[in-house]
Amino acid sequence: MRVLFWGTPEFGLPSLEAMRAAGHEIAGVVTNPDRPAGRGRALRASPVKEWALAAEVPVLQPVRPGAAAFLDAARRLTPDVSVVAAYGRILPRETLDLPPLGSFNVHASLLPALRGAAPINWAIIRGHAESGVSIQRMVAALDAGPVLGQTRIPIHATMTAGELYEAVARAGATRLVEVLAEVAAGRAVETPQDEARATWAPKLDREAVRIDWSRAAPELARWLRGCDPRPAAWTTLRGRSLQCFEPTVEPDAPGAGAAATTAGATTAGAPAPGTVIEAHAVRGLRVATGDGVLRVGAVKPADRRRMSAAAWARGVARGVADLKGVRFD
C-alpha cells in the first residue's frame, strides 16, 4: 500500500522502517514545520523529516493540516492510507478521510485508557503495572476510534518514560505492520472502545511537573521516573532550577516524617518535606518527603549537563556538609 505518514519525533521512526521493510511504499511524510532549537535558536528539522530526506521521500510541513493547499498536495501523493504516530496535532475530518482506506493511529497506551498527549508519562506516574500500544482507526474525537490491534508491555519497578517510549515505539511498529496487512486483505477486525472505561493523559507542562515534596516518596519516585528524560521533574534551590532523576525510595529511613506544618517543620520534629538529609560525595542526595526519604541519583542544573547527584553536591556545596538541612523550594 501507499502510505502517507504523519509524525514528528523519534517515536515514528520504527514504524517508518517497519512499513518499508514490509513492502509498503511511503508516499510522503507530514511533519511539523522546522522549529528553533538549541542555544543559537537555529531552525531544526524533526527526526521524521530527517528520515524522509535521507530516504528521498516527499515532505509536507503544513502550518494547518486542514488547509486547502495542503490537502491538494496530499491528494497528489495518492495514498491508500494515512498512518499517524506522534504527529502532535489534531487532524480535521476532511484530512482523516482523504485516503480511501482511512487513517490509522499508533497510540502509546492500551485504549481506552490514557487517551491524550502524554500516555507514556502518565502510565508511570499513576503506577500502572503495564502499558502498551493500540492501533486505532482515527475519528473526529480524540483517540476514540475503534481498535484494530494492541500489544501489552509490562512496566518494571525502575522503568523510566524514556525506556517505555522506546519499548512502545518498537512494539507499535510491529503491530502496525500486522494491522496494515489485515486492512489490505479486508479482514481487519475493528473493536469499538468502551467509553465508560476511558481515562485521560493530558499534556504535562512545566508547572505540572514541579516537584511537590509533600507527596510520599513512592509517589515522587513515579513522578521522577515518569518525567525522565522529558519533561523532567524539577525543583528549585536558592532560586535556581534543578531537574531530578534516578529516584530510590527509602520508606523506613530515620528523619523522614509526616506532613510539614506551616512553620516548615513536621509535627514530630522530623525534617520538613524538601529538606536535604544528606548530600554525600559518594552516596549522593537524600531528601525528606511527606512520607519517607527519596534518594535522588542524578540531577540537571539549568544550562548544564545531566550529572550524578554526588558530583552536583560536591560542586555546589564546597564541601558536601553545607547542603545538609537546606530545603528545596
Give the uncertain stretches in residue-range form. Answer: 254-267
Content-based structural category: alpha/beta
Strand arrangement, major sheet: 5-2-1-6-7-8-9
Overall average residue pLDDT: 92
Largest sheet: 7 strands, mixed
Q: What is the H-and-E element order?
A: EHEEEHEHEHEHEEHHEEEEEEH
Helix count equals 8
Q: What percentage of residues falls in helices of 4 or more residues? A: 10-25%
- Globally, the shape reads elongated
Name of the CATH superfamily of the largest domain: Formyl transferase, N-terminal domain
Compute the CA-based radius of gyration.
23 Å
Give the beta-strand count.
Answer: 15
| CATH topology (fold) name of the largest domain | Rossmann fold
Q: What would CATH call the class of the largest domain? A: Alpha Beta
Strand content: 15-25%
Terminal CA distance: 55 Å
Number of domains: 2
CATH architecture term of the largest domain: 3-Layer(aba) Sandwich
Question: Can you offer a commentary on this structure?
Answer:
This protein is of the alpha/beta class and 329 residues long. It has helices at 13-21, 47-54, 68-76, 93-96, 119-125, 161-185, 217-226, 309-317, and strands at residues 2-7, 25-30, 35-37, 42-44, 59-60, 81-85, 103-107, 130-137, 147-154, 234-237, 240-250, 276-280, 284-288, 293-301, 307-308. The chain has two domains: 2-197, Rossmann fold (3-Layer(aba) Sandwich); 207-323, Rossmann fold (3-Layer(aba) Sandwich), CATH 3.40.50.12230. Helix content is 25%, strand content 25%. It has a seven-stranded mixed beta sheet.
